[in-house]
Task: inverse folding
């Protein structure tokens, strides 16, 4: 075939080209097409009311989704989008911007090991290694084989005074020795067990010393934050 | 808020004195001095500058840091340098940074040769890169949609495409994922990006990251020509350029015109060039033989057949001018009919528009320019869905809400995609337009209107917001003419608001057909001749139809009109067409052409020469870009030949001659010529002829709306609406075929519950024995008691059931949703009319 | 400890301080009463301006002056407390919020009066979950006691306060990114102008201040601007809660008068580097401040002006000390990785420059860098500085640039010794 012929065939093809979408598009969900669990809907609606503009509730809504499903599942994002009247793409874009939102399944318990400067100077890399080893995650950014413990390195968590430190299920602990990792992982695996009770940030005084008193124990407040029901490991599926 | 007056500001750029209007950004001001400052992310069409790419850094005297010229408004006396070493250093740095992750695969990239990145790297880059590490990798071109491919490696993260999706079309399907240099453009869950305007991103992308499948690898800039025209597929009449290679149109691009389209196109307009060279096109005259098949004939034979048919019918002839009929053609058609056959039966839409009202509405004092929307204090969208009927208007309204904070008010039968951004969104039942607008007139204090009916409350709320500022614009749909009294009430509202007394604000009609306004003005309206001059009243579309059935009308000429598809009462139309002599000028074999005795090939908007009139009165030129395929002749010539055969000598050898004769005849078009129209068009209201507009009287036709409902019944009230994709264009362009949609019965959740219906259920919807098949779609924003169907579908057309206002439907479930799902036909696959939501303010 | 001057930290370890009862018992919420019942908004503003209180979040801009930029009039005005505290080395806001949340809330209510703000938000980083819970509880108590609500202390002024949790992004500490994030968008910085004081949250006038800045307000109102100015230096009045961490024996928050010797903070209060080690260098104001060597830095007074003069900055007031066992090249890589990870990606020099810098430093630590690379590293930092949309890019480029400059031999050593040994291995 001459180049001219090839070219004219290409032209013909262009004028007949037809493609099918590879999936359904997703605009603002029609509320009637999305089933949203009552409690989730209520929580998101309440968040929306707290701000002059409803979109301000996107982060709270994603928190709600993540607490409910363990991670920001596509279905969960769609549900939040349906309640908020925005596109799921909008919320997914937000979720992917922030480090604390997971767009993939993670473990029941989250261990964030600070590896930033101050902690690094005091042995954070070893601590991260120790956690990974204790939970057998095979490296940072993964979960233990039983899906119970997820470990990842994290940027400065704002607790360099207890370096090297970790955040376990949103509470801070430090300073830790690599040996603490095994204890912590075991405690997480045991239902009802307190994790590293002697290393809690709450118990620390301003200038480093131990802070005393039991009457000062702060009880978590739940006004806009129901306690996270931990997802069942079995219910998680890998994002395809 | 009226159009701001901007003073001239003088500054110094690179030693040159430059003057530009106040508020101009430095980059644009520099152009006044022939100085080019390179930009990537800056695109004024997208709104406020974002200052992201940092390509446009310049030095400004008195400011220590370099500043982005794209976001710095000019000030009097400011001194700017764009060529210093410091600036060059910054430009080199930015280009070097941009290229470290760019694959530099120009030889195989479609953008090559018309790529801003290529140009800027050559003109402002350091020439070589010091980056030796591995580049970022993504999977090479992936389908972003069936129409657009995305190559993320080429993306320079300028944000233009996602800004378009967020802030212009507001469909918010295209977003940025991740953060920092991991960021990439994408959709939710890797879904396709399918939205009515998404093709614009291929034009916005300054690199080869977003390309059209229909254009990839087809041509290089050096072997194509661009020529300008106007898209006549809908009343938006967007200004376009066809990219032509080897006499074929391969691409449609926007030709920015702020007075018309703001530089955007909808996907229907952008991707409807395949049909021009389609094998399905009618390219020669044809006559129906005794066995019912169409056989090609010579032009001479075809014309004599048509002439004979029309001559026989004589005063019982009729014309329907539709779709892309140009002003010239419309004017010739009415002349042929009125002078040649002494028949008054000509119409150009299905609305039954009344000549006296049309004349009143056409007054320059009442009309609004397209641009007026940019300065409106409040915009009322009355019984029209711009997204479906005039898509570009949808973008323009969103722009006004987003950028200038216009109060948006929506009053419609069908839920609107503009509801989300509206300060007030009101639903009324099909057929109740007159009551609602009457209530509004009462709330505005119009004499003769009083209301304490069910709409009073809502009307008061709208009235109050309409008075937010002195400049409201009311966008209304031509279908208001279908409800007696609605347009009168609208006029009363306009007067009560004082719109007729102020320059600027006013009414903007969304006509039913692409050149609806032009066709009326040149005389394709019963009771109004050229220039809307009172004339003998003839039958309107529905009257023509009924006349055909009862023998009063014996011949019908369809000019790019397909009443079976677009007009109410499809079945009645079929019957009518089957019983008379029908001539159809058409591009494709459509449902009406199927009944034609003679078929004449029509020119497309890429082949035609002529003028059209925008809904705001702007005359624009449609110009030939590609040769007419096959035997196709200019329709003007065909009509002239036909007239000659009927004994009329017109001496109008070509289009310019017709234009001249037409502007002589239409008094307010006087003085309009190809030159005055130019590339950007001209509003007749702004010419001397327009300013001499005087009140004309007479020519009243009674509203020829459809007969009252046959039965009151107890079912849901039927409502219909036009869907953007329910059109021949979707079917004839292979690239758009995936958008072909099925019929849906849209109902409110409450009705669904009482009727035991779920999303996706199959139903049969019937009226008096006529029925269509549909799938159920539950719409939360709909009021109970109404069922909506789309008009204009090739099958299961909602128009088939329309039988005048107040029609009620029977709904019978035929198959549960699960059955469709099992067959792989999920609910969503049919729902492709996507609703972007204006951001809540 | 004698060298500390505790104002914000006065009762910091008092049991129960986080509850309104204890806070009030110790004299809390008196300043709000004074500001709302005895003073006009202009007077409150004047007092704050007079005090010379400079922002404690990084830029050190006069707090009162910033509040005075907000237009008058009765449109909705916003106040955002910046509690994002994500700068490596900073942890003072955490302690202030966790242990004394009402001091902050009181400060916010006072600042709201000065600025005429009616809707206030505390933007707290998502990682501070415990502190967020504590603030939520405290805010509810303050509403209950009538300090917050539609009619603060019967004056008719509305002050609503919402605790908004972020979700992990350093850039949201940048004030305009904070606004975008609070509006529910990705946390990308905005172009300035317009400045937030004119067009901020939801397009309305907005005052943004750091936790510590706002926590100072009750004390200034209670005791007066003159009293406040009696602490610190002329250009840096007041005290500062300084987070000291890294290679020191007693890392922690120490509240000192501005202008005290840096040495006092590092050696006396924080205990200096572990026994037998010495201070090789330190970041004086968080990881984005250019590092100072021990020799040049220890003798400087700890104030905004002294740090600036020394070519660095006080920033958020967070000292990270590293001793002589630390490889500055490794430190540079750690620092660059942080900014690369946190760059929002909106503007080119920051997005690509941080990425490029990390790649080059990684290569350097692997011994695969050519001698040209160190020049390129330095030049890339220069190509970033002053060219970005916000200062995140500069925040990497300045310390990295300073490290290359001040510890150049370490970079060269890495290059030579590593490639030499690599060559030796190959031979
Ligand atoms: C990248 C970046 C991160 C910042 N992070 C914080 C922060 O975490 N907390 C904070 O108070 N200020 C932070 N700032 C400074 C803020 O932009 C802003 O200047 C400050 O909140 C103003 O409060 P102030 O005047 O009370 O200091 C940051 C600035 C930048 C550029
Ligand atoms: S895909 Fe194109 S338009 Fe979109 S961000 Fe990338 S370079 Fe810009
Ligand atoms: S064009 Fe000015 S920053 Fe992109």
Result:
């Amino acid at each position: 075939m001459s180049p001219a012929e090839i070219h004219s065939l290409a032209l013909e093809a262009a004028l007949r080209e037809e493609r099918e979408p590879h999936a359904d598009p997703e605009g603002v969900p029609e509320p009637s097409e999305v089933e949203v669990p009552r409690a989730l809907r209520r929580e998101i609606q309440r968040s929306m009311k707290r701000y002059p503009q409803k979109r301000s509730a996107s982060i709270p809504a994603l928190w709600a989704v993540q607490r409910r499903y363990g991670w920001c599942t596509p279905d969960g994002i769609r549900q939040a989008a349906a309640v908020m009247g925005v596109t799921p793409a909008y919320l997914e874009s937000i979720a992917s911007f922030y480090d604390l939102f997971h767009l993939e399944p993670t473990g029941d318990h989250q261990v964030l090991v600070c590896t930033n400067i101050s902690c690094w100077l005091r042995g954070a890399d070893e601590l991260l290694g120790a956690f990974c080893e204790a939970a057998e995650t095979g490296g940072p950014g993964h979960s233990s084989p039983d899906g119970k413990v997820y470990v990842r390195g994290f940027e400065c968590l704002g607790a360099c005074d207890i370096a090297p430190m970790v955040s376990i299920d949103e509470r801070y602990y430090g300073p830790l020795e690599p040996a603490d990792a095994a204890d912590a992982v075991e405690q997480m695996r045991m239902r009802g067990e307190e994790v590293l009770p002697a290393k809690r940030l709450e118990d620390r005084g301003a200038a480093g010393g131990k802070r005393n008193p039991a009457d000062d124990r702060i009880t978590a407040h739940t006004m806009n934050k129901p306690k996270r029901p931990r997802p069942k490991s079995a219910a998680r599926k890998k994002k395809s | 808020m009226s159009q701001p007056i901007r003073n001239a500001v003088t500054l110094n750029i690179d030693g040159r004195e430059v003057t530009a209007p106040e508020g101009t950004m430095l980059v644009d001001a520099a152009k006044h001095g022939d100085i080019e400052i390179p930009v990537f992310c800056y695109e004024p069409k997208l709104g406020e500058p974002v200052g992201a790419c940092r390509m446009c850094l310049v030095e400004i005297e008195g400011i220590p840091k370099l500043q982005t010229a794209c976001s710095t408004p000019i000030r009097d006396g400011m001194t700017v340098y764009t060529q210093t070493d410091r600036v060059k250093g910054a430009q080199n740095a930015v280009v070097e940074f941009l290229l470290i992750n760019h694959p530099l695969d120009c030889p195989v990239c479609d953008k090559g040769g018309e790529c801003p990145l290529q140009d800027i790297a050559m003109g402002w880059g350091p020439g070589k890169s010091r980056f030796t590490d591995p580049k970022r990798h993504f999977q090479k071109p992936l389908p972003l949609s069936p129409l657009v491919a995305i190559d993320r490696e080429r993306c320079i993260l300028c944000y233009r495409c996602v800004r378009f999706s967020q802030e212009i079309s507001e469909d918010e399907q295209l977003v940025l994922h991740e953060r920092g240099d991991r960021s990439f453009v994408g959709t939710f869950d890797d879904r396709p990006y399918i939205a009515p305007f998404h093709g614009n991103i291929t034009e916005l992308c300054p690199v080869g990251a977003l390309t059209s499948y229909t254009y990839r690898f087809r041509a290089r800039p050096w072997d194509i020509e661009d020529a300008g025209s106007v898209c006549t597929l809908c009343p938006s009449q967007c200004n376009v350029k066809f990219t032509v290679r080897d006499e074929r149109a391969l691409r449609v691009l926007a030709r920015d015109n702020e007075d018309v389209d703001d530089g955007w196109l909808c996907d229907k307009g952008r991707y409807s060039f395949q049909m021009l060279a389609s094998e399905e096109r009618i390219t020669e005259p044809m006559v129906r033989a005794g066995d019912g098949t169409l056989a090609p004939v010579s032009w001479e034979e075809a014309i004599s057949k048509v002439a004979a048919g029309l001559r026989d019918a004589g005063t019982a002839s009729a014309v329907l001018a539709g779709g892309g009929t140009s002003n010239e053609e419309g004017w010739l058609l009415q002349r042929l009919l009125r002078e040649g056959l002494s028949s008054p039966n000509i119409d150009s839409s299905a609305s039954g528009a009344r000549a006296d009202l049309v004349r009143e509405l056409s007054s320059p004092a009442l009309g609004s320019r397209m641009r007026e929307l940019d300065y409106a204090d409040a915009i009322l969208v009355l019984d029209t869905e711009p997204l479906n009927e005039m898509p570009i208007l949808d973008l323009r309204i969103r722009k006004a809400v987003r950028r200038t904070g216009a109060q948006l008010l929506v009053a419609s039968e069908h839920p609107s995609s503009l509801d989300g951004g509206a300060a007030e969104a009101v639903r009324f039942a099909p057929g109740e337009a007159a009551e609602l607008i009457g209530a509004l007139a009462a709330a505005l204090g119009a004499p003769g209107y009083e209301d304490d009916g069910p709409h009073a409350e809502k009307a008061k709320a709208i009235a109050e917001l309409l008075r937010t500022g002195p400049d409201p614009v009311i966008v209304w749909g031509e279908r208001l003419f279908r409800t007696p009294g609605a347009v009168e009430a609208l006029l009363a509202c306009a007067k009560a608001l004082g719109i007729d007394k102020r320059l600027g604000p006013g009414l903007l009609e969304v006509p039913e057909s692409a050149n609806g306004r032009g066709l009326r003005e040149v005389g394709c309206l019963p009771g109004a001749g050229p220039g809307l001059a009172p004339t003998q009243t003839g039958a309107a579309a529905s009257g023509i139809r009924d006349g055909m059935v009862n023998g009063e009308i014996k011949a019908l000429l369809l000019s790019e009109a397909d009443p079976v598809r677009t007009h109410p009462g499809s079945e009645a139309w079929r019957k009518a067409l089957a019983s008379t002599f029908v001539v159809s000028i058409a591009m494709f074999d459509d449902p009406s052409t199927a009944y034609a005795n003679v078929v004449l090939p029509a020119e497309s908007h890429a082949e035609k020469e002529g003028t059209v009139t925008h809904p705001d009165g702007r005359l624009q030129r449609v110009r030939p870009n590609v040769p007419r395929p096959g035997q196709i002749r200019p329709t003007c010539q065909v009509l002239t030949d036909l007239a000659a055969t009927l004994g009329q000598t017109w001496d109008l050898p070509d289009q310019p001659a017709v234009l001249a004769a037409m502007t002589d005849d239409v008094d307010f078009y006087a003085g309009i010529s190809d030159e005055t129209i130019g590339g950007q068009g001209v509003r007749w209201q702004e010419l001397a002829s327009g300013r001499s507009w005087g009140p004309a009287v007479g020519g009243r036709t009674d509203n020829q709306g459809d007969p009252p409902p046959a039965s009151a019944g107890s079912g849901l009230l039927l409502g219909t609406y036009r869907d953007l994709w329910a059109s021949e264009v979707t079917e004839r362009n292979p690239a758009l075929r995936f958008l072909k949609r099925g019929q849906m019965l849209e109902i409110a959740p409450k009705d669904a519950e009482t009727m035991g219906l779920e999303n996706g259920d199959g139903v049969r919807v019937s009226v008096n024995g006529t029925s269509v098949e549909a799938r159920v779609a539950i719409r939360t924003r709909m009021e109970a008691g109404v069922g909506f169907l789309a008009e204009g579908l090739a099958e299961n057309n909602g128009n088939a059931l329309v039988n005048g206002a107040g029609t009620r439907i029977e709904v019978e479930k035929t198959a549960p949703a699960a059955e469709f799902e099992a067959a792989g036909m999920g609910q969503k696959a049919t729902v492709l009319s996507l609703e972007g939501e204006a951001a809540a303010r | 400890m004698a060298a500390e001057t505790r104002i914000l930290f006065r009762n910091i370890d008092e049991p129960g301080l986080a509850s309104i009862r204890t806070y009030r018992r110790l004299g809390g919420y008196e300043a709000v009463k004074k500001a709302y019942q005895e003073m006009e908004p202009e007077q409150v503003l004047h007092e704050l301006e007079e005090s010379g209180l400079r922002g404690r979040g990084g830029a050190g801009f006069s707090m009162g002056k910033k509040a005075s930029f907000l237009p008058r009039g009765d449109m909705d005005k916003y106040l955002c407390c910046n509690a994002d505290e994500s700068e490596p080395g900073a942890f003072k806001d955490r302690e202030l919020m966790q242990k004394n949340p009402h001091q902050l809330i009181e400060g916010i209510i006072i600042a709201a009066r000065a600025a005429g703000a009616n809707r206030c938000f505390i933007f707290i980083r998502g990682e501070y979950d415990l502190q967020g819970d504590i603030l939520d509880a405290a805010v509810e108590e303050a509403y209950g006691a009538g300090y917050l609500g539609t009619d603060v202390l019967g004056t008719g002024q509305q002050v609503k306060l919402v605790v908004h949790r972020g979700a992990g992004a350093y850039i949201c500490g940048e004030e305009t990114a904070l606004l975008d994030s609070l509006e529910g968008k990705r946390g990308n910085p905005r172009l300035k102008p317009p400045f937030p004081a004119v067009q901020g949250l939801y397009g309305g006038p907005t005052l943004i201040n750091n936790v510590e800045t706002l926590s100072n307000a009750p004390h200034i109102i209670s005791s007066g601007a003159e009293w406040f100015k009696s602490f610190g230096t002329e250009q840096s009045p007041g005290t500062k809660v300084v987070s000291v961490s890294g290679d020191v024996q007693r890392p922690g928050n120490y509240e000192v008068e501005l202008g005290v010797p840096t040495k006092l903070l590092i050696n006396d209060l924080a205990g200096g580097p572990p026994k037998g080690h010495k201070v090789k260098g330190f970041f004086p104001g968080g990881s984005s401040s250019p590092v100072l060597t021990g020799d040049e830095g220890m003798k400087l007074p700890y104030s905004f002006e002294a740090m600036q003069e020394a070519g660095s900055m006080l920033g958020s007031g967070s000292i990270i000390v590293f001793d002589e066992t630390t490889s500055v090249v490794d430190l540079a890589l750690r620092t660059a990785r942080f900014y690369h990870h946190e760059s929002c990606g909106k503007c080119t020099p920051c997005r690509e420059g941080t990425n490029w810098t990390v790649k080059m430093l990684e290569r350097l630590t692997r011994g695969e860098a050519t001698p040209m690379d160190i020049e390129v590293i330095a030049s890339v930092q220069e190509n970033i500085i002053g060219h970005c949309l916000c200062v995140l890019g500069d925040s990497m480029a300045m310390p990295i640039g300073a490290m290359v400059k001040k510890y150049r031999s370490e970079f060269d050593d890495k290059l030579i010794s590593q490639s030499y040994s690599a060559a030796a291995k190959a031979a």
Notes: The pocket of FE2/S2 (inorganic) cluster (ligand 3) is lined by residues B 39-42, 51-56, 68, 70 (CB under 6 Å). Residues 358-509 of chain B form a domain with the Dimethylsulfoxide Reductase; domain 2 fold (CATH 3.40.228.10). Residues 234 and 514 of chain B are 4 Å apart (CA to CA).
